[in-house]
Request: fold
Amino acid sequence: MTSAAGAPGAVPDGAGFDRAWSSLLPVGRAPTGGYHRLAWSDADLGCREWFRQQADAHGLTLDEDHNGNQWAWWGEPGPDAVVTGSHLDSVPGGGAFDGPLGVVSAFLAVAALQAAGVAPGRPVAVVNFSDEEGGRFGLACLGSRLMAGEVDPDTALARTDPDGVTLSEARSRAGFGDRRPGPDPDRLGRIGIFVELHIEQGRRLAVDGVPVGVATAVWPHGRWRLDFRGEGNHAGTTAVADRHDPVLPLAHAVLAAREAAATGDALATIGRVEAHPGATNAIASRATAWLDARAPLPEGVRAAVGRVEDAARAAAGREGVALTVAEESWSGGAEFRPELRAALAAVVEGRLGKVAQLPTGAGHDAAVLAASVPTAMLFVRNPTGISHDPAEHATRADCLAGVDALVAVLASLCR
Amino acid sequence: MTSAAGAPGAVPDGAGFDRAWSSLLPVGRAPTGGYHRLAWSDADLGCREWFRQQADAHGLTLDEDHNGNQWAWWGEPGPDAVVTGSHLDSVPGGGAFDGPLGVVSAFLAVAALQAAGVAPGRPVAVVNFSDEEGGRFGLACLGSRLMAGEVDPDTALARTDPDGVTLSEARSRAGFGDRRPGPDPDRLGRIGIFVELHIEQGRRLAVDGVPVGVATAVWPHGRWRLDFRGEGNHAGTTAVADRHDPVLPLAHAVLAAREAAATGDALATIGRVEAHPGATNAIASRATAWLDARAPLPEGVRAAVGRVEDAARAAAGREGVALTVAEESWSGGAEFRPELRAALAAVVEGRLGKVAQLPTGAGHDAAVLAASVPTAMLFVRNPTGISHDPAEHATRADCLAGVDALVAVLASLCR
Reply:
């Protein structure tokens, strides 16, 4: 048995890599190739069963907490554990890598260390955080934020999906109804350090020609729902002067979001819109747009949202349409600790020969945990930058490089 | 037994009016008060059953054709029949009167003539045209247009609803799978004259202070589907320059439709929009808008659609998004025969003391039939003008005035 230092004999197992991916890839995949692994859906439950099987196959001890997060322990469950992992849920029609890459890589890194006979100097765990995307109930990073006490459990349980199913009902249907969600200081307290590996959701590493990078920061971001209430009427008989069409101010909001992003340092996007009742020959009675906004600083996000709201409110006023704006989620982002990311960058560079450090506009459980425990992130190169789409991709070689980097990082942290 | 001339003893039966409405109103009504009587849905089948019961209660002979239209005959089924009626289906979330008012009034008018002992000089029928709204498969006036040979049956059968169910499948589920739709010259040939009574879908009669009017024309109108194909991506990491967001040109199309209506003589409306996959934190990969456009003349409709398409195409080009525009339906409208509408106006004025003549932008089966047979329409006052919405309304007194006018018109035509 070797010491963990450097773990030179611990290398990713290509055959194990292929086995792990081929067992996970069919779960929740649509005929079009996109993934629909929304929280507590059958596909999500399939992913959770896959996690249990992986834990068992690697001789790890399974622990499933009351917030839906899954933990697989190598050694005692804390304290001062090195925890690594990500999430297995997806946005509607998402890609294969956003989330799963971090969980698959975590199991493979543990396997590589085990195969090399490494005896870790502190507990190690693989984690699957529940409902990271918020793709069903609109609350991102819900599993980690419930654990950290950042979300009121009753508010979360009352949230509904687009079919009107509450989170409470969805948990019950999934056989999880007897577990009450809420703060979990015990499990949070077991984490000595958290490292999340994730596919990059941009092209920075591709441009730099680097397979694996280290995160410097996660931008603050939030989600807002704009509800426009007008007056339904016949599309073929209602004079323009008599119309109160909620789709018009919605359109102005869409354009204002782009304008705010194009002329500021924020990103602002409306990717989900609805008009009711949705008849071609009827003026809609109400319409809803969901706004996603992010920026390096919170005030940048607020400024972008303010510009969208101002434009929407002015257009709604002209049309005689009522507008309500609700903040559905807010994440203050995270600046990762400089000394930790420098140390990890050195380890990755030592292993792979090069490294990059970069921020991201994407939200992650790592940003939630960073408020409580030392936290770091590794990014794996994404050749097109496409994410949250079936075309999201990373090469097999880069994914294996990511596992290799994670092996070295875990070995370094377990010294 | 009196002659039909004038039918002075034939008056609407208020108690019968209340019974007819109270038996129909619960069918397909949502808890919010709106109606969802989409073609071949359970609610539509409930309406069809109601029609059978009404035919039976009035001693009329039921005939259901292969296009889904229902006929209730007083006397022999043609030739040279006076046919009156409308449709029982609704748009999603529609009102109680658009369609049903014409069918209910037709049965009540026949009942009034029967009660007065009128012996009609020619066959009379009440009709329920199938799928007038096109609220499920996107083809308006489908029952009458199939009968008239204006729509290819195979094209219609292959159309899908928002859940992906084809018209063919929907007909089969409704027990109608063994009837092949298509041209029906025999039934069309039985019609000597068609009179459709309908709630007004505007405020013209309310402004004029007239309970019942006669239609001069139905504007030409059509429906177009604009499909924008962009590139799905992460909303929080994709730079503006790398985006191909299909929701942006959709927004430009919405604004262009309003601009075309506000500055031309057309009406142009986008009341149905979709963005896929519909995740808050993802740029949509594709988006669709449905455009409804109408004008007094076909070239006015084409000009409005052209302006919307030009604006959408320019915006799509700037965004690197592909746009396809498909005409989903087209109706050339109808100018009703001046001598017939003058005669009907005289009858209505003689009965009610006043009348108005007015065109409409709404499509109707009457406009389809007008190409083949003498056709006329009566409108009943709508105090708010609201239609295609649960708030659509006509007073009981005006509805009874409409029946009274229809009694006089039928009596006049049956002389």
In short: DSSP finds 13 helices and 15 strands in chain A. Chain A has two domains: 14-219+333-413, 222-331. Chain A touches chain B through 76 residues (CB under 8 Å). The first helix of chain A runs from residue 14 to 24.
